[in-house]
Structure formats: structure tokens, C-alpha cells
# Entry
Amino acid sequence: MSHPPLFVLKDVSFRMDDKDILASITLDLHQGDFLAVLGASGAGKSTLLRMFNLLASPTSGMIRYRGQPLDVDVRTIRQNVGYLFQKPAIFNGSIKTNLLLAGRWDINLANTLDHELREILDQVELFDMPLGRNARDLSGGEQQRLALARVLLNKPQVLLLDEPTSSLDPKLSRAIMDLIKKLQSELNLTVIAVSHNHELMRRYASRVVLLHQGQIVASGSFNEVDKMNALEDAGLLKAAN
Amino acid sequence: MRPDFYILSWTDLIVSLGFIAFAIALIKYWKLDLEKTLLIATVRTFVQLTAMGYVLTYFFGQEHWLFMLGLLLLMILIASYEGQRRQKQKIPGFFVAMVVALLASTLIILGTILLFILDVKPWFSPYAAIPIGGMIIGNGLNSTSLTANRFVSELQHREGEIETLLALGATPKIAAYDSMKESIQAALIPNINAMMTVGLVQLPGVMTGQILAGIDPIIAVRYQIMIMYMWFTTATLANMIMLAIIYRQFFTKKMQLRSELLREMA
# Structure
């Protein structure tokens, strides 16, 4: 017997300033999926991603999470569905301060012991990093790992990645994505990654959804999408000269 | 020998306009483009205060609690309108927030002063309630206007941090806390600095006015001390109430940051 989908999106649309950012998106997502949402800039990828943890809500249509409407308990959803931003917001203060942001409202988290924090840092391969070090002194790649560790402290079941490696060089991008892939299998995470880099995503994603001007133009495995020549149609491949 | 007091005549006042003429000359020399605004402000100062003088004379003759409350409410409404007008960007619901913040601070602080500190009898005596109420409302207006402007720019500046906190499960209040803290601190620090240096580098207006009007400096000083404490608490209270109301305008019911509102205000 197959499990019911983790997320169900039905006819999800989003309008802003009389413009359709997303139009009639229908999509199922299962536990353990690694979904790549690809598309050119302005295709609506980030808006779609933001809907999975309610940073944005559809203007019309419905999103269900484990069979329930997504917006019943906003805060619990956000704790279960972690979001890694394109440019991580690193707060003024130490690595520990940045890790324990959620300790501002979660007393259990606020009492996390230092050795537990170090374990999380090890998990994101920030080995031997002093907890007291100023987080703004870290490199771009290290800051992204710190932001990932911060999300992992919430023990999420889903990880949303908004172009998490766009500001990193190819080698670092691969390292971060390798890490995410490893964490996905270790922690049984469901991952949704938005990217314009289909070459990078091809190595990691089990499914792909291709957005063009707010609509899904292709979805399936990379092989299936390749057969449809959809990447080119979505403006992700330059037309052959 | 200490004179009883100095009477300022209308002619004296016209002579004092010479200050403004001098300021305009300086402004012109530096090409600051402030002449027109200054002229309007000069006329407004004159008209508003003169009118207030007559209004006060009228109200000082009307010893009735309803008059007093009506006048204070009118002052609060005018101050709230002015506060809204002063906003660089229009914050939805700001007028109501100002009315609530000023009303609450006036009731609490003026009430305490009239009933427990000065022990004014009857409590609605206009000689105490009007000038002190005016100071509370005026100070509340100045402070909240600055804080609200600063709060909006903090939200704009911290958009990424706020969304990060929301995405981790923070309530809007927690997510906006750093912006609230920063903007209130920015409003209160000048007040604290003023308290640190008062009497050393400047003599405050109320005290100076009382001394000029013939009051014993020791008594005038006591009033000034009370007023400094009152000012600080008014600013603190009014800012906190105002922010506690307006921060909600920047979030949706689903705890989302209204980024489009922040961009409109940029």
C-alpha cells in the first residue's frame, strides 16, 4: 500500500499587482522525495517554495499537508518545514546566538547544551567551530551551513531550499548539496529545492517540476523532462545556434 | 534683589520677531531653502499659542471635570493627527495607535501627578492639568513620531532576519522584536542623555519659565525634576503602546510579513 502524499497542491494560484505569479499549480509530493523546482528567473519558483511553509499563501487553490489544510497551525508547520534562504540572514552575535534563534520562544531549545550544538555543527560539517565566534566573520559557505544547522535544530521533516548555493562557487555548491543529500537520507527528509541550475540539480533530485511564467510546463524524472525538450522551452537551455 | 516677575507686552513680542528676521537672513546666506517653512512655522507658533492663551483663559474659568477631559481628548486627537501627518510613509492604523498610546499615557501619568504627586484639589483644576497634560501629549507625540519612522526603516532593513525568524516558527511579535527594540532605544537614548546633562549644560524651558515668572528656583527645580521623570516615562509608555499596536499592520493573519507594504513604503 502506498503512503498518502505529504503535500497536495490543487489549482494553486498566486496573483500580485494584477499579475499571475503562479497559475493553477497542481502537484503531489511524497515523504522522502527530492523535488527540484526549475525555471528561469521570474518563473514563480520562489513564490511556490514559500507556500510550503506559509511564508506566502495562495490567492486561490488549496494546499494540504498530511491530509490537513496547511494553514491550520502556522507555527507548527514552519517548525516541521524548514526553509533555507538564498542569502542566509546571519544575526549580529555568536554562532551560538545564531543557532539558538528559536530559543527565543522555545524554552527547550534555549536550554540546548553546548555539546549538542557542536553535534549539529558537526552534522553540517562545521567541525571544531568555536560556538562563541562571531557568525558574521564566517565565509559565505560556512554561513549557509550555519543556517542549515539552525534549521536542523527544529528537527524538520521537510527542507525547503531557495537557491541555496547561488552565491557559492561550483565546488562549494556541490559540497553543500552533497551534504544536504546525505542529511536527507540520514534524517529521512523530504527536500524541495528551487534552482535555475539544472545541471547541479540533476545530480541530486529524484523529481523535477519545470515552471515557466507561473505554470508547470513539465514534471517527472529528469529523463522524462529531457525527452520533452522542456528545459529549452522553459528558457533554461540556450537554443542551439 | 529678586524681581516679582517680568511682564511681556505685545510690543516686546513684536521686537522678538527680530530673532526670526535674523534667522532668515542667516538661512538665506547659507541658501538653506527653509525661509518659507520657517515663516509658516513662525506664524503658526504665534497664532496657535495666542489662541491657546485665550482658550486657556477661558478654560481656567471653567472648573468642570468634563471640560478638562474634553480638552485633553481634543489635544490628543490633534496630536494624533499631527503624528500621522509627520509620517514619511503612511502606516495603516497609525492614527488610532497614536490616540490609544497618548490617551493611555496621559491617563496614567497625568492621573498619578494630579492625584498623588501634586495632590491637586479638585483634581481637574485646569492650572495643573492643562500645562502638564500638554507636556505629556506633546512629548508623547514627538517621541512616537520618531519611533514609528525608525520602526518602518528597521523592518525594511531587517526583512531577511524577520522572515528567517518567521520561517523557524516565531510569532510576528517575536520576529518584529529586534526592530521594536532598536527603534525604542533610538527614541529613549536622547531622553536619557538629556537627564544625564540637565542642569549642567542646559537649563530646561519649564524651569527657566517658572524662574522668569517669579517662582523660587528651588521650587522650580523640583518641578523640573518631576517633569524629566514624567517625560521619560511618557516616551517609554507611549512608544511601547504605539508599537504594540502598529507592528501587527506589517503581518498577515497567517503570520506572514507584508513585504509589499514595506516596499510601498520604501
